[in-house]
Amino acid sequence: MGLLESFGRSHASRRKIVFDMARVPALEDLGDVAGKRVLVRTDFNVPMEGPDDRRVITDDFRIRAALPTIEWLTSRGAHVVCASHLGRPKGPPAAHPRGLSKATRYSMEPVRARLAELAPGVELLENLRFNPGEESNSPEFAASLIKGIDMYVNDAFGAAHRAHASIVGPPMTLPSAAGRLLQREVEVLGNLREKPKRPFVAVLGGAKVSDKLGVIESLLQIVDALVIGGGMCFTFLAAQGYPVGSSLCELDQLTTCKRLMEGPKPIYLPEDIVGLDASGNFATFGIRLPEGAKGLDIGPGTAGAFTDVIMDARTVFWNGPMGMFEDERFAAGTRTVAEAMAATKAFTVVGGGDSAAALAQFGLDDEVDHVSTGGGAALELLELGDLPGLTALRGAPNVK
Questions:
Q1: Beta strands 176-178 and 200-204: pairing type?
Q2: What single DSSP character describes residue 174?
Q3: 62 catalytic, yes or no?
Q4: 352 part of the active site
Q5: Taking 70 as the threshold, does the pLDDT of residue 6 lie above it?
Q6: pLDDT tens across 7-57, in order?
Q7: Neighbours of 62 (CB within 10 A)
Q8: Which DSSP state fits 27?
Q9: Is 353 a catalytic residue?
Q10: 313-332 residue pLDDT tens
Q11: From CA 365, how far away is CA 368, in angstroms rounded?
């Protein structure tokens, strides 16, 4: 039975999940912004390469993604001050033995230079995470951020699942709004929860079941089928009694995986595996991996089967690679899924993170309907239906 035929039976048992975007203010809710200083929390956590003193941005997508919000504000006479984190410096440079190198490595200067090219006249504060008050949600640090600021806009979807000072602090006292990027992300992902075109298929990869157990449980309430690849597939295969060799396997999750497999929604797992044999040689295996073998990608048969499921759907959400795609030997499965996402006529959403990186690597990032700027935030929004950043905006003084 195909996915379209089985859809009618599974949909009837779906439990209703209410997605609440009510009262999240938009830019228009700020009123007149002319002459106002507006703090825009952006997510400029862009990838960079090179030595610490000559870091070069390799992908400015996140900077460009904030331009619609910045341009909306500046075109109406606002003075925009952007704030973002970059990397994980874990406090000020002085606290690190290699303080000078750390300050250079995590400095916003390369981002500031690129922003000046794209949006002249816009300020950019230094890396928020240089101050430990950012991640600890210090009221004092939040107060310092909004000193001399009239309004606040959150356009950092990739950080909106963090209750950090720059995310939840400013809306407590300032007129606030969601930027265009945040608004679009929430609308797209909210529609996946509430009113997707069906059949709705979710494709999940990544290393561990435990990392995505909550979102798996939630997705099984709203999708019509689940496709699982990546390292997490081996825990599911082991739960069915298949030997997985030396592949990543979470033994403490076997009972959970077995329970999920016995549920009413179909879960598609690999039928062949690509990896290394016990001697470290490249090999293709069937569903049973011999002792010492390690699975590192889905096999060609599985890639074809997963493609069929994707092509049969009307909505597809993908998060997580099918294997270790950074190594060309184990990139075929992820590439095939990416190509299917690009080729299908379904509405396609890619949940940021490694999936978005894979799309870009294969030159397909412009071939899907929506690429999220936040992998963790996308998963949390699908799982819980809300984010700390959205809750904070609802409590802003300009929200009635």
A1: unpaired
A2: S
A3: yes
A4: no
A5: no
A6: 333 333 323 333 345 679 999 999 999 999 999 999 999 999 998 778 999
A7: 22
A8: G
A9: yes
A10: 999 999 999 999 999 999 99
A11: 6
- DSSP letter string over 188-240? HHHHHHH---SSEEEEE-SS-HHHHHHHHHHHHHH-SEEEE-STTHHHHHHHT
Task: Indicate the DSSP class of residue 172.
Answer: G
Establish whether 16 is a catalytic residue: no
Q: How far, rounded to the nearest angstrom, does the alpha carbon of residue 263 sit from its chain's CA centroid? A: 26
| Pair type for strands 347-350 and 225-228 | unpaired
Q: Can you give the pTM of this predicted structure? A: 0.87
Query: Which residue, chain included where needed, has tokens 């945040």?
Result: 182
Per-residue pLDDT of 275-290, as tens digits, reads: 999 999 999 999 999 9
Retrieve residue 371's tokens.
């690429």
CA distance 317 to 350: 6
Tokens representing residue 174 in the block: 């300032």
Question: Which residue is catalytic, options 353, 374, 385, 389?
Answer: 353
Two tokens, residue 379: 């998963």
Q: Which amino acid is at 255?
A: T
Residue of 158, 299, 376, 389 marked active site: 376
Question: What type of residue sits at position 367?
Answer: E
What is the residue whose two structure tokens read 């700390």? Answer: 388
Q: What does each C-alpha distance from 134 to 131, 244, 398 come to in angstroms? A: 6, 43, 24
For range 350-378, the mean pLDDT = 89
Q: Residues 41, 62, 105, 162: which is the catalytic one? A: 62
DSSP structure string for 363-379: T-TTSSSEE-S-HHHHH
Task: Please give the structure tokens belonging to residue 242.
Answer: 């298949």
Q: How far apart are CA 301 and CA 334, in angstroms?
A: 13
